[in-house]
Specification:
Blueprint lengths: L4 E14 L2 E9 L4 E3 L1 E4 L6 H13 L2 E16 L5 E15 L10 E5 L1 H7 L6 H12 L6 E7 L20 H17 L3 E5 L2 H14 L3 E4 L4 H6 L1 H14 L3 E5 L4 H9 L5 H13 L6 E7 L6 E8 L2
Parallel strand pairs: 1-6, 8-11, 9-10, 9-11
Antiparallel strand pairs: 1-2, 1-4, 2-3, 2-7, 5-6, 8-12, 12-13
């Protein structure tokens, strides 16, 4: 019997702590009279992380910043085309950054509940896996995280076709398209600080996101190839500074700097999987326009990267 068609979807479990008690957000669908997590199908070509943030806003009227990935859910559905399929739902823990608007998209009620009450109200056993994982993260002190995102600049005009100084070399058409595509992906993780090499191709990789979010791109010469060749420690010190600051941030730089920066982040890896991801990226490189999201718990010397994700073009 052939495998069932896969239907990708994504969602979140927004969480908060009120008077020292953890709460999570559930949504109610009157069509099915069920309580579950905010989720929905991916649009064509859409990244799961983008869909998770979008669907959460559409179904709960809450804007969220994605945190740590949670266990996936897979289950059989009878789809709208009257065929059976396997729904594959990616989930993230999420923190609310804004809660305005009205309920839409077939949701008539939301509820913030403690873990026990949420467990009892959920209508599907498959939704309990995400709740149990989130509660375990909270108990371990590793649920409250902030993202530190490393971005390799998108594709630029070849050096052979550029007669001016290299740091002025701009993105090509493919690079500009990738820079635009990064806007919703970065927005799902909500970096508040946008830091870039002062080279044009790096600045312009993050510029569309900065414009969309009214954020200033902070240009740093230490992140350029030329400065790194002379004083590599300054780029590493810049990453250390962001870790001490502990605010959601995206950093865009060049291929020659990546091994040193990724190895620095590897030192903060909390699990073998996280360290392996940074080892592989440092050894084999990142594609142009690729980003790595580190979910960081704590700041400074106590900072621990408890999860990491890669997004290639």
């Amino acid at each position: 019997m052939p495998a069932l068609r896969a239907v990708p979807a994504a969602g979140t479990i927004p969480w908060r702590v009120v008077d020292g008690e953890l709460q999570v957000l559930l949504v109610h669908r009157p069509r099915y009279d069920d309580w579950s997590w905010a989720k929905g199908k991916l649009d064509p070509g859409e990244e799961a992380a983008v869909a998770a943030a979008r669907e959460t806003h559409e179904e709960s009227a809450h804007t969220v910043r994605l945190g740590r990935p949670l266990p996936e859910a897979r289950y059989q559905i009878f789809d709208r085309d009257h065929t059976y399929a396997t729904k594959e739902v990616s989930y993230w823990a999420a923190t609310v950054t804004d809660a305005t608007g009205t309920l839409v998209n077939e949701i008539d009620e939301i509820a913030w509940l403690g873990p026990t009450e949420a467990h009892n109200r959920l209508d599907y056993a498959r939704d309990q896996d995400q709740l149990l994982a989130l509660v375990a993260m909270h108990r371990a002190g590793e649920l409250d995280t902030w993202p530190l995102i490393i971005v390799r600049h998108a594709t630029a005009l070849p050096r052979s076709k550029w007669a001016q100084k290299d740091w002025l070399r701009p993105l090509d058409a493919r690079g500009r398209a990738r820079a635009q595509a990064l806007v919703p992906l970065l927005a799902a993780y909500g970096p508040l600080r946008v830091v870039s090499s002062s080279s044009t191709r790096c600045r312009d990789t993050l510029a569309p996101y900065a414009r969309a979010t009214a954020t200033q791109v902070k240009l740093r010469e230490a992140l350029t190839e030329e400065k790194f060749e002379k004083t590599p420690k300054k780029a590493i010190a810049l990453v250390d500074k962001e870790i001490r600051r502990g605010k959601p941030a995206a950093i865009c730089t060049h291929r020659p700097l990546l091994p040193a920066l990724l190895e620095r982040l590897r030192d903060h890896g909390a699990t073998p999987d996280v360290r392996a991801l940074y080892d592989e990226a440092a050894a084999n490189g990142m594609e142009k326009g690729e980003l790595i999201v580190a979910h960081v718990s704590g700041t400074g010397q106590a900072a621990r990267i408890v999860a990491a994700e890669r997004y290639a073009p």
